[in-house]
Amino acid sequence: xxxxxxxxxxxxxxxxxxxxxxxxxxxxxxxxxxxxxxxxxxxxxxxxxxxxxxxxxxxxxxxxxxxxxxxxxxxxxxxxxxxxxxxxxxxxxxxxxxxxxxxxxxxxxxxxxxxxxxxxxxxxxxxxxxxx
Length: 132
Hints:
The chain has a single domain, classed as 3-Layer(aba) Sandwich (Rossmann fold), CATH 3.40.50. Helix content is about 40%, strand content about 20%. The chain contains five helices and five strands. It starts with 6 loop residues before the first strand and ends in a 12-residue tail after the last helix.
């Protein structure tokens, strides 16, 4: 990627999950930046500039759908892969309609995460602009 860092933001309120995802992301040769809440992620977004976001759906205060709606107002929108431990009816569809590029159920394996990141390209190739 011609010298540009490949930053993946990890947004999850569970510390153990954040640490595990950081290790997985590092093992895939990406740079993880972890956030314990959606609010802290959004506050740091301009300084962090991730090309990809691993976003927990179930979090207190701002949930994954709230964050997706906020991200849609920003250009360029990073590729977002929503992750959840409780796949409820309609959640996947709601997230995809809100702009998620992917959706995964926990627990995540290294291969599953690698495939998802490759599938959504995480901003390392031109993505079409979104118009609302």
